[in-house]
Amino acid sequence: MGFLFFRVTPAPRKTAMADVLEIDARNTFCPVPIMRLAARIKQVEIGDVIRVLATDPGFKPDLHAWLKGTRHELVSFTHVDKVLTAEIRKTR
Question: What is the value of pTM for the model shown?
Answer without folding.
Answer: 0.79
